[in-house]
């Protein structure tokens, strides 16, 4: 599942289109997502085409209908989930290993 996509960054100059602000130069009113912009949209700074923008999206592991359940673990990316699982396993391993050092 892909989350985000309301903003995008121009690869040519670094200008960032934000949905909250829109683009008064084009004119695009606030609240219009980057995907909803017309195909002839250009960067107001360098004049780059819409296909030169890189959308700010992140891929979240899991199904869209399951994102509302749990303690926030469903909205983590695959790498974040792996880090959380293996970090907890390493912590548990060292916790039990520290029992050998008790007198």
Q: What can be said about this structure in brief?
A:
The chain is an alpha+beta fold and 103 residues long. The protein has one helix and three strands, in the order βββα.
Computed over alpha carbons, the radius of gyration is: 21 Å
CATH top-level class: Mainly Beta
Regions with pLDDT < 50 over 5+ consecutive residues? none
Mean residue pLDDT: 84
Strand order of the largest sheet: 2-1-3
Helix content: 10-25%
Please tally the β strands and state the result: 3
What's the architecture, going by CATH?
A: Single Sheet
* Distance linking N and C termini: 51 Å
Beta-strand percent range: 15-25%
Main sheet properties: 3 strands, antiparallel
Domain tally: 1
Element order: H for helix, E for strand: EEEH
CATH topology title: Rubrerythrin, domain 2
List keywords for this structure.
103 residues, Rubrerythrin, domain 2, three-stranded antiparallel beta sheet, elongated, metal-binding
Describe this structure in words.
With 103 residues, the protein is an alpha+beta fold. The protein has one domain (2-101): Rubrerythrin, domain 2. 19% of the residues lie in helices and 17% in strands. It has a 3-stranded antiparallel sheet with strand order 2-1-3, with no helix packed on it. The longest helix has 20 residues, at 78-97.
